[in-house]
Amino acid sequence: MEFINLGLNFLFLALAVIILGMSAYALVHALRVPTNAFVSAGKLQKNIWLIILILATLFSAAGAWSYLNAFMFVGGAQFIGIGLGIFSIVAVIAATVYIVDVKPAVKGMGGRGGNNGPYGPW
């Protein structure tokens, strides 16, 4: 039973780290996109997306930290459980919506400009 608990605890730790990575990636991308690109694409304003993604990154970081601490102390002795599950779910939903919907819409708007072809500058 200890082996099963260890596997489940490691799985939830890995998922928490993946959610943290997704949230951080979405936040960094949102920081790099110009403000007018969000308005031009018909999406929420950049400030609102930044607030959403900062909260998502903080919640996912807290979840990953709690799983890491619990995993280090508990290991496979018992099943840790879901922990900050609802906040991690909200964080992954926010990051996924940004990556799947907003990121493609603001791609190529603003920025450098110039004569970029389909395979890069030429």
Topology (SSEs and partners):
Layout (H helix, E strand, L loop, with lengths): L1 H31 L2 H6 L5 H29 L10 H22 L9 E2 L2 E2 L1
Antiparallel strand pairs: 1-2
Explain the overall architecture:
The chain has 122 residues and is mostly helical. It has 4 helices and 2 strands, in the order ααααββ. The protein has helices spanning 2-32, 35-40, 46-74, 85-106, and strands spanning 116-117, 120-121. The protein has a two-stranded antiparallel ribbon. A hairpin with a 2-residue loop joins β1 (116-117) and β2. The longest helix is centred in the N-terminal third of the chain and has 31 residues, at 2-32. The chain is elongated. The relative contact order is 0.20. The model has no long low-confidence stretch (mean pLDDT 84).
Look at the structure and give the mean pLDDT.
84
Distance between the termini: 60 Å
Count all strands and give the number: 2
Radius of gyration: 18 Å
**Alpha plus pi helix count:** 4
The neighbouring-strand order within the major sheet is 1-2
Output the helix-strand order. HHHHEE
Q: Could you say which overall geometry the principal axes of the C-alpha atoms support?
A: elongated
State the secondary-structure class.
mainly alpha
The amount of beta strand, in percent, is under 5%
Which blocks of ≥5 consecutive residues have pLDDT under 50? none
Which bin fits the share of residues in helices? over 70%
Sheet bearing the most strands, described?
Answer: 2 strands, antiparallel
